[in-house]
Specification:
- This protein has 16 helices and 19 strands.
- By secondary structure, it is α+β, with helices and mostly antiparallel strands.
- The strands form six sheets. Strands 11, 12, 13, 16 and 17 form a five-stranded antiparallel beta sheet that branches.
- Helix 14 runs antiparallel to helix 15 and helix 15 packs antiparallel against helix 16.
- The longest helix has 18 residues.
- The chain is globular.
- The two termini are 32 Å apart.
Length: 541
């Protein structure tokens, strides 16, 4: 997730064991609680937990526990299965009739109705509400009136949404979008209770949803406590008493707490511990493919990085990165050098598998040549920005810079630029304050090639943090979305990926596996294809 949007639509520790009161989040001295709760590492979300305003992983973890939408993605296959939707009908891929299952309520007792969805989608789309995922609603007719590119809104709601009765509503799109139903498991499309509007500040302090857990408490910078909702009407009821999400600013500390028995789950094994993890955890270590890709983005909004011919510079920098050496030595088989801009988990319906084979393989001679032909690095030195608190980013950023410096024969060509916390980093990114390449990671919101391309590279996409733009790319994406034949649609998306490759709109680094470790007091732990723990299925022994 890290974001997701459909663009016009635009449309994922230290090495010392610390006492319970140290920077490991939480105040208990053991893993989980005696009431069957599970403790897990976490990071503070960037934004309040409004479904349409959360486009990064940490907030997404919470939304996955407290909300259920029309669709739910299978925790093993990623398939979009009906959850609150009884059926979604269409004859033309423009007009959809959505029928809800009866018997669903929010945890405060309010009934989930068609209005719960329509109101939430209108709220998420409206310009005045400043929701980061607004563009997810961009194909719904009337979106341009509630969220114009310029000027003030001319309507309060989207004309394409109509409530028929408590269990039925209709959606009219502005153009064909055949896979629209498959996107509806994304959190931006979650329903909201009336309490969200009646006491917005109160709701934000303690969100109310319709998922298997309820928020019990949240202390920013410390922990969030979620409790099992005993009256949850879904089939995927929580198999534990609750989840305590503990904030860590260093995932090495989280790992140390895990091995010391003070934490039950770490869902991002630090790179520095990968050589030890099998010995430390044995069968309690998870390493599985996930729909995640890591890239380097460029600030195209900075004139220094948006000059004619700089596609050669970006391609040269890509060829100066020895991905195989970095993934082998730092990531210990939890990363695979990227050959395109999507993910292998998509299978045949993904991108061109070797489209970047030439431009994404270490070739120092060609790299040096292309960087020179592309005008050289602006200012002579580029700084790769990254968040310093989680993900062991320093190790690989330093390795990338060392590789680039070695290839270019210039030890000042590239340096790392650490930025405090994830929230601080994302704020600078979303405010377009980057002055050079910056770390970007994408965790799919749903398993479609569209989700790896449009949210990140379509003009105006809300997760297009570098402001890349190419009219030909946009045109092909629009054509793909309108195509009802899946094979033809994938082919058009692959053509769009070719445009992206020719521009080197971002540098693909590596595909990322999901990695996690858990304590011996829990079982039935797995990561879904989005690399998020399936919290509700974890059992306490």
């Amino acid at each position: 997730m890290r974001g997701a949007t459909h663009a016009k639509w635009a449309a994922l520790a230290t090495a010392v064991a610390l006492a319970a009161t140290a920077c490991g989040g939480g105040g208990d001295s053991g893993g989980g609680g005696a009431d069957g709760t599970v403790s897990s590492s976490w990071g503070d979300p960037q934004n309040p937990l409004e479904p349409a305003n959360t486009n990064e992983v940490q907030g997404g973890k919470v939304l996955s526990m407290i909300f259920r939408g029309l669709k739910q993605y299978d925790p093993k296959t990623g398939a979009a299965n009906n959850m609150l939707a009884e059926k979604i009908d269409t004859t033309d891929s423009i007009n959809f009739t959505i029928t809800l299952k009866d018997g669903w309520t929010f945890s405060n007792g309010e009934k989930v109705t068609a209005k719960s969805f329509v109101d939430a989608w209108n709220y998420g789309a409206h310009l005045k509400n400043n929701q980061k995922n607004a563009y997810f609603f961009g194909y719904i007719e009337g979106y341009s009136q509630v969220h114009p590119d310029k000027g003030a809104p001319t309507a309060a709601t989207m004309s394409g949404l109509k409530v028929v009765n408590d269990t039925t509503f209709t959606v009219k799109l502005s153009q064909k979008f055949s896979t629209f139903p498959d996107t509806l498991g994304y959190a931006a499309f979650a329903p909201l209770p009336q309490a969200f509007y009646d006491d917005h500040a109160g709701w934000l302090s303690k969100p109310v949803g319709n998922g298997p857990y309820t928020v019990d408490s949240y202390a920013k910078g410390s922990q969030m406590v979620l409790k099992k909702w005993d009256s949850y009407p879904g089939t995927d009821k929580a198999q534990n008493g609750g989840i305590t999400l503990k904030v860590y600013t260093d995932n090495n500390t989280a790992y140390t707490d895990l091995t010391a028995g003070n934490l039950d789950l770490v869902d991002d094994i630090p790179a520095s511990q990968l050589k030890n993890v099998s010995a430390d955890l044995g069968g309690r270590y998870i390493n599985t493919p996930a729909g995640i890709i890591q890239t380097l983005s460029f600030p195209f909004y900075d004139p220094a990085w948006n000059k004619p011919g700089q596609e050669k510079l970006r391609t040269g920098l890509s060829m100066a990165i020895d991905r195989k050496q970095i993934t082998d030595t730092i990531f210990q088989k939890t990363r695979t050098p990227a050959q395109d801009w999507t993910s292998p988990v998509l299978g045949a319906e993904g991108g061109f598998k070797d489209i970047c084979a030439a431009s994404c393989v270490y070739n120092p001679t060609e790299a040096k040549k292309l960087v020179a032909e592309g005008g050289g690095i602006p200012g002579g030195t580029m700084k790769i920005s990254y968040n310093a608190d989680t993900g062991s980013h320093k190790e690989w950023v330093d390795a990338v810079c060392n590789s680039i410096n070695r290839a270019l024969g210039n030890n000042k060509a590239c340096v790392g630029n650490p930025i405090g916390t994830f929230a601080d980093y994302r704020n600078q990114v979303t405010q377009s304050k980057m002055t050079g390449p910056f770390r970007a990671g994408w965790q799919m919101d749903y398993p479609l090639i569209q989700n790896f391309l449009q949210p990140l590279y379509y003009t105006g996409a809300s997760s297009n943090d570098g402001k890349y733009t190419n009219p030909e790319f946009d045109k092909l994406v629009d054509q793909a979305n309108a195509e009802t034949d899946t094979t033809k649609a994938v082919g058009l998306f692959q053509q769009a990926e070719t445009v992206l490759k020719n521009d080197m709109g971002a540098i693909p680094l590596w595909y990322q596996n999901g990695s996690a470790g858990y304590s011996d007091r829990v079982e039935n732990v797995l990561l879904n294809p989005f690399s998020v723990p399936v919290y509700d299925q974890i059992k306490v022994k």
